[in-house]
Amino acid sequence: MKLINFTFLVLLMFGVFMGKGFSQYGDDANKDRIPYNLLLQSQVMTPKPAFMIVTNSAGFENFFLGVDFAEPHMSVNPQNPLWYFTAFNTNATHYTLNGVDWRTNNPVFGFTMMGDPVTAYDSLGNIYYDNMYGDGSSVFGTKIVKSTNNGQTWLPSVSGNTGNDKNWIAADQTGGPYANYVYGTITPGNFIRSTNLGTSFAISVTFSTQSLPGMMVCVGPQTVGTDVPGGCVYVVTNSGGTFSPTYSFYVSTNGGASFTLSSQQAFAGYVGTTTGSPLRHSVQNMRTRPYPFITADNSYGTLRGRLYLVYATNTPAGNGNKPDIFCRYSTNKGVSWSSAVQINDDVNPTANHQWHPSTWCDKRTGRLYVKWFDTRLCSTSDSADVYASYSDDGGNTFVANQRITTASFKIDCSTCGGGGTPRYQGDYDAITSYGKTSLMVWSDFRNGQFGSYTAYFPDYAMRVNPTGNFMLNNDSIFVRVSVPGVKLYTDAVKFTAEVDTLPASGSFNFSFANGRDSISTFPDSVNLRVKTVGTVTPGLYGIIITGKGPNGIPVHKRIVDVYVNAANVSVGTNREGLCAFKVNGVQYTSRQNITVTLGQSVTVQAISPAVVGNNQYVYTNWSDSGDTTHTFTVNNPLTLTANYKVQYKLLIISSVGNTFGGNIYYDSAASFTFGVLSRTVISGGQTYRYRGFTGAGAGSYTSLDSTGADSAIVWSISAPTVESCRWMNITGISNISSEIPKEYKLYQNYPNPFNPSTTIDFDIVKAGNVKITVYDALGREVQVLTDEVIQPGRYKAVFEASGLSSGIYFYKIVTGDFNAVKRMLMIK
Q1: Which of 249, 319, 592, 781 is most buried, taking the most CB atoms under 10 A from its CB?
Q2: Neighbours of 74 (CB within 10 A)
Q3: What is the pTM of this model?
Q4: The domain 460-564 is classified under which CATH number: 2.60.40.10, 3.40.50.1240, 3.20.20.60, 2.115.10.20?
């Protein structure tokens, strides 16, 4: 874990507790910075999750590198097509040495890094990594580190550019007079170069036309007159209004020592919808901008020297419309430009967002690659995918767009951690190439975080069947390796196989049926034979099957798990994570896959019961019908499951006790009885009469009335249930006089209006059951004051209404010979 200094910790705590994502910067529409709280968060490097290959059902894949903070840039070693390097905010790097497995080794700049990482390879195989630095609240410029081995180790950082926002970098990969010069730009307009392989950098030019983020640099040949490789250095600045920018194109023919203005163009406008304060471009609350991405054709094809511009802008123009991706080209060093060519080919582009482009022109083939974000698969336009295309005719036409992502992602990622309105989710990403294959990098939000991904294009899908098997000595299995589909891929795919760990004894032999190890038409497949030779050490082996295109890319691999002289024993429960079991004395709560040598024994034990809250899980049986604890000999692969049934707890709450059947776990759907032992209970000198149950929980029981007739209930349970027993204190009914009244009578309550209690008097002529009930204005029963046999006399009952709302209530008396109703009013 990288540590930060005490000042940064104080600032971090201040940012978190004050909740000000932009408070230290002050949001400036003319600066595109990572929000301050996210910047500080990114300084504390957390352990990365393991690199993963994310494959969809069709067999296409994205490479998941981990979780970073967006804004990646990428470069490929021109001497080795398997060496790629990428960097994310603020200093999160990844590299691969075989085109498929990615690793991390972040350089130590020795300064507070502020983000916007950009990279470039020179022709000698040196990678240059440029990143802004500052004091945490202000950007001072950039620091640059160099690696001669694709980021495995780093040289000390050197001072790069001076400025405050959105740096860029490029290197001369030619053998011309400026070979391996490294160039850089930054807002507010400084241009630097290194003429000594990155040992030092110096500002050679300052451009006054740079006021908006998006100053870019690229290298192209000089093709007028004498052909000079790397003879043109191009810079485009971005200035003017935030929503009406001006692109100023400059060219240098002396290795960046000086520049001349070629033209100024107003090609772009709004990208999406304005929002925030100050106003910014946004797509679904993700901030964006019409950056002018430039690249040049350094190949020796017929289009050598062509300069390309790729950008996003709304179609039709205007705030609130949806953007498209456009390409223009210049054949005269940026003096004049072609008309715009729309790259996205969706049927109804005005209904979809296309934004966030990046581009690269391959130095071997001249192929122009472009990738972008695209919502065409989402009818509501709030989820996106990465799409890509390329042009082989100089940007005049583009091939059918291809979806690159294996899963769509919600654009507005509230859980990612980016701040601001619109939300920061990265301002750029990248694509690079080697010949007929490109590799792109981006940050997407499919898992509610800043996921870091890469993918090849053009590309092929790859599948293996089966994905696992079981073998003995001198045994053979066949694996079908197929390419079920392609994304504009037209070359052959060659397959190889190897074992991930060599056995201590014996060996593996790999061969392809009929010697056919390649596919050149799609879909198609080959058959791989895996043979054990001699006595192979028992264990689990991974058979790595790798597919490669020309130059070794695109490269994909799949692993087939093979158990040799051993078997996989999978042990678990039907209640994953809830119930415990033991395997050879070791306790687990999640399914275990154990490699066991054939002939060895395994002992398993189910642990029961498992109480989890108001649920109880009770062991019933093992799937092999073995005892709770039993031992078996392994001769074949085996999946073993301990089955548990669920029981739900019935909790009975009663203020005076006298219940049965409660605080017990019952089988789901099984019948049982619960209730009260006696309908009348004397407790604390008070007499209580049972009036029913009120249930809580799915499928619970609630008494239909307040008679108390349901003192024993036959029920079944389907979830944890709470039953609350209702009791009425009948001690509140008191005799006023033993003189026998001449007639039945119900008197008006007093006081009336009342709050919160009132007294009701009534006369009883002869012995019998007397019921007095209180109702609300809607006729709903509120309380039964008495429901019992009463002797002749004059009585009074107290109605306590502290838990009720103000309003009109009715009280009713019912005997065998008399009934009456009166009204009363409670005012709080």
Answers
A1: 249
A2: 23
A3: 0.78
A4: 2.60.40.10
